[in-house]
Amino acid sequence: MYPTAYHGDIPVSGKSPMLRAVLTLSLLMLSLEAVASDTLRCGNSLITEGMSEEQVAAKCGTPASTTVRTAPIMSYKRNGTRYQSGERVMHRWHYQRSPGQFDAVLVFEGGALTAIELLH
Questions:
Q1: Which of 2-6, 22-26, 30-34 has the lowest mean pLDDT?
Q2: What radius of gyration, in Å, describes the C-alpha atoms of the chain?
Q3: Cα separation of 2 and 9, whole Å?
């Protein structure tokens, strides 16, 4: 059991509705912060996951370099054995950014932006 402290005549404990509201609001703000990290600024434009290669190229220009990587798509049979059922093709665009900003790698699958990686 948590000890109860009093502020005037109002009990303040770990189970108070106000504390729960503050904690809920804090968690909500943290989740919004995670969403904001899925964006990248190119000049005056914001790049977000889901944009097409054409949209990103129009806003960010030509990348400094590009690479293509493949990765197997693994599946399971009914008896539990694993097998390769396909292959993912990922286009990686490397952008060198302004001084004081981390370089970025944009990953595209199927023509859509699926990941934004900042190089520290």
A1: 30-34
A2: 23
A3: 18
Output the 3-class SS for 81-93: CEEEEEEEEEEEE
Q: Which ranges of 44-91 does DSSP label H, i.e. alpha helix?
A: 53-60
Alpha-carbon dihedral sign for residues 112, 117, 56, 53: negative
The pLDDT assigned to 31 comes to 42
Q: Are 120 and 102 in contact (CB under 8 A)?
A: yes
**Terminal CA-CA length for the chain:** 45
Average pLDDT over residues 69-94: 95
| Sign of the dihedral through C-alpha 54, 58, 59, 61 | positive
